[in-house]
From TrEMBL:
Bias type Polar residues, positions: 74-83
Domain of life: Bacteria
Protein name: H-NS histone family protein
Domain DNA-binding protein H-NS-like C-terminal: 57-107
Chain residue ranges for the region called Disordered: 29-107
Length: 107
């Protein structure tokens, strides 16, 4: 099949799917109306009583505990500190690579 034929076929399939969905929707509505009528209600009455959708729950945050005290400080810039936990800061790694002993940077 040529590209043009395939595109026409795709368009026809999409239209057929939309028509099938509309038919199924009408059939479902009729079935729902019939079921509601068996209990003496209309579908509109039941739809008005439908509960509101629940709100999505927010994810919990981790409890905020005390922050760890700094264990190491940059000798070139004492305002740069590190607790010794997590990834090593670039300044710490650079000092160690240049031969500095980590204990000399301990606070």
């Amino acid at each position: 099949m040529s590209r043009k034929d395939l595109e026409k076929l795709l368009s026809d399939v999409k239209k057929a799917l939309q028509a099938a969905q509309a038919r199924e929707r009408r059939a479902a509505r009729k079935a729902a109306q019939k079921a509601a009528a068996e209990y003496g209600f209309s579908l509109n009455e039941l739809a008005d009583e439908a509960p509101a959708p629940k709100k999505a729950k927010k994810p919990r945050k981790a409890p905020a505990g005390p922050k760890s005290k700094p264990q190491f400080a940059n000798p070139e810039n004492p305002s740069q500190t590190w607790t010794g936990k997590g990834r090593q800061p670039n300044w710490f790694r650079a000092q160690v690579e240049n031969g500095a002993d980590p204990e000399t940077m301990r606070v």
